[in-house]
Design brief:
Elements lengths: L18 H8 L3 H11 L6 E2 L3 E2 L3 H15 L4 H12 L53 H11 L3 H15 L1 H21 L6 H18 L13 E5 L7 H12 L4 E5 L4 H11 L3 E5 L8 H9 L12 E5 L17 H10 L12
Parallel strand pairs: 3-4, 3-5, 5-6
Antiparallel strand pairs: 1-2
Length: 357
Amino acid sequence: MSTTPASATPPSEDAALTTGALARRLGVAPTTLRSWDRRYGIGPAVRADGRHRRWRPDDVAVLEAMCRLTSAGVPPAEAARAAKKAGETGGYPADDTTAPVARTGEHAGRPEHSERPRFPEPPVGRSRAAGALPLGRDVRQECRGLARAAVRLDAPAVEDQLSEAVERHGLTVAWQEVMVPTLHAVGRKWASSDDRYIEVEHLLSWHVSTVLRRAARPLTEPIAAPGAVMLACVPGEQHTLPLEALNAGLARLGVPARMFGAAVPAEALTAAVRRLGPSAVVLWAQSRSTASTALARHLADTRWGVSGARRSPTVVLGGPGWAGRPVQGMPRPAGLHEALNLLTGARPGSPAVPPGR
């Protein structure tokens, strides 16, 4: 039996976070945490085996303040001094590892500790362009870390978290439950803040596109198909990310696809259908002003092949622009998973797409 007094027993290692886990919570790159430790002395008080960083609640509290201050425009060195000074005056309760981050799920509504330190507000006059995004409550924790990284314009952290979401959850879940909610939150913030946050939207969109293109690699043997799937935005439509997600999903399933991107002219769409002979054409319209049922019908009627064996494509309508415009024989999948099932289900012997693919 140990003779060490209970008060002297060190906190359990289970209460500490690794650098990677903490980076995901705070929405920064692991290299950023290591850099702050080296440059400003904002590091863990205890290291496992003397080498590996293990971040305890008090360490995380200081880092959360550091992130908030730097996001508000305070220079890193100044933010580090202020965060460490405030952290010396008090701390989070030792068993509350969630205190420094946004409370969600089972932690929502938990009362704050009475001795929680009050970290300083950013100096008056500094930029407040970086702020919380309207994510709502029912989102994955990865969305919050991704949003924080995007608002800070921390490109390495954004790309790391997007890549990890695809690796951990699969493409469809990462797209529908991590990327889309965060993109929508940026869009809402942009719309409600007099055109601020445009830089956040551009940076996040760029890295989402980068990760989607990187994910467009076959995970299965290619499917023998009578024709590729054509993916194109209707004329005047610039929103390509949903089609990029679909292109990546088809590639991972071994389904041949041809991506034409934004604002494809009607004449070019018709010419491509005749040259490729696709099995399906997916037309994306983000807004009602760009959705054209006349164009969709024209493509559905476009035929190719030798006399007596001529075929036409299945036209699939994607995007909110087609809402309220049902067109007979032209399906409107509700999301990426449904679209993948639709485009692969028509192929003989093709199984349903697993949700996490």
